[in-house]
Amino acid sequence: MHRTFALLTLCAALAAASDFSGPSALEFTRKVVAFGPRPPATAANRSLQQYILAQLKLRACEVTEDPFTASTPLGAKQMKNIIARFPGKSGRKIVISGHFDTKIIPGIQFVGANDGGSSTGLLLEMARVLSKKPRVDDVYLVWLDGEEAFAQWTERDSLYGSRHLAKRWEGDGTLARIKALINVDMIGDKDLGILTEVLSTPWLRQLIWQTAKDLGYGKHFLSSESATEDDHIPFLQKGVPAVDLIDFQYGGMLTNYWHTEMDTLDKLGAGSFQVTGDVLLEVIRRLETRP
User: Fold this and answer.
1) How far, CA to CA in Å, does 266 sit from each of 6, 49, 88, 119, 269?
2) Would you state the pLDDT for residue 34?
3) pTM summary value
4) Which whole number is the average pLDDT over 147-161?
5) H/E/C letters for each residue in the chain?
6) 105-127 pLDDT, tens per residue?
7) Averaged pLDDT of the chain
8) pLDDT > 70: what percent of the chain?
9) Residue 81: is its pLDDT beyond 90?
10) Is the dihedral of CA 79, 257, 245, 5 positive or negative?
11) Residue 254 pLDDT level (bands cut at 50, 70, 90)
């Protein structure tokens, strides 16, 4: 009984020690959603880029803007990834990524509160927390543009930002120094249930699921499996250990809000951001202790 109490106390202390604020992440997401639909190469997308960059100027990090031109079914589109580096001393790197663009869906006002908004807001809160503490490994936060397809999802019409960055990092040697990459997508759902994404690297997925269990968040990290093509895939294909954290049961089995006008801020909860943020920060700490 005493050992159980001690373990619960330790888990609670670890979660509290993260300094991550779910309400703050939700508030960042609220500001992101206020820009409206944010497909690549639109005024709203560019305004959001400036908002992200303005927030990062408040943090102790090195910021890189990564502009590129993507060939899409709708022609050439100017896109930009944004990278924040929180330097460590080991020479190794841990990457947390997520996309900030929204899909073009004709006929509806798709604001992507969960799909594009929640990942952006969570990363902005992560930046606030990471800027407060010294690091062992470099930690990169990456806001990816162009995750969504312009027409129909294919290898060429999807994942524009992550495909570009994986190729760039392969060329400059960054890729070889990445310990792990964790991609987050649709993690703000009030009824958070992150599926076991089977394309992800098994040992890294197991580390995350065990960390969630240790923190008392195991019920949110499901055993139900899915195979999801997301921004982790280009890095997996180049040999980087990578995981996708995604709640693809958004709205439940009968009413799915994914890629509909129902993906609005009222469907999100600060508690879900808290779970994801606490787990990520503890996973980073555990990864930093690995050789």
Assistant:
1) 37, 24, 38, 16, 8
2) 98
3) 0.94
4) 97
5) CHHHHHHHHHHHHHHHHCCCCHHHHHHHHHHHHCCCCCCCCCHHHHHHHHHHHHHHCCCCCEEEEEEEEEEECCEEEEEEEEEEEECCCCCCEEEEEEECCCCCCCCCCCCCHHHHHHHHHHHHHHHHHHCCCCCCCEEEEEEECCCCCCCCCCCCCCCHHHHHHHHHHHHHCCHHHEEEEEEEECCCECCCCEEEECCCCHHHHHHHHHHHHHCCCHHHEEEEEECCCCCCHHHHCCCCCEEEEECCCCCCCCCCCCCCCCCCHHHECHHHHHHHHHHHHHHHHHHHCCC
6) 999 999 999 999 999 999 999 99
7) 93
8) 92
9) yes
10) positive
11) low
Tokens in use for 254? 């009968």
Strand-pairing partners, residue 112, are none
- CA 72 vs. chain centroid, Å, equals 23
